[in-house]
Amino acid sequence: MEPSAETTLAIVLGAQDFSRAGLESDPAFTASARAFAAYLTAPEGLGLPADNLLDRFDFNNGSDEFNEFIFEFFSQAL
Hints:
Blueprint: E1 10-14, H1 27-41, E2 53-57, H2 63-77
Parallel strand pairs: 1-2
């Protein structure tokens, strides 16, 4: 099967706040993540359907819930 927008999945991960690691937060992290997600779904970008993008930037819930989101995302796509 050839790769296409309809068969491609993407997950956006990351965070703006790194204060717990002793690093400064920067709004540019959020701006970059939003711009990348927009590129992934824009017709002039990769043109992915919105359902093929899982945006978990600044996801603050625990790892178990995070794993559930990813499992469900891939399960629904298959």
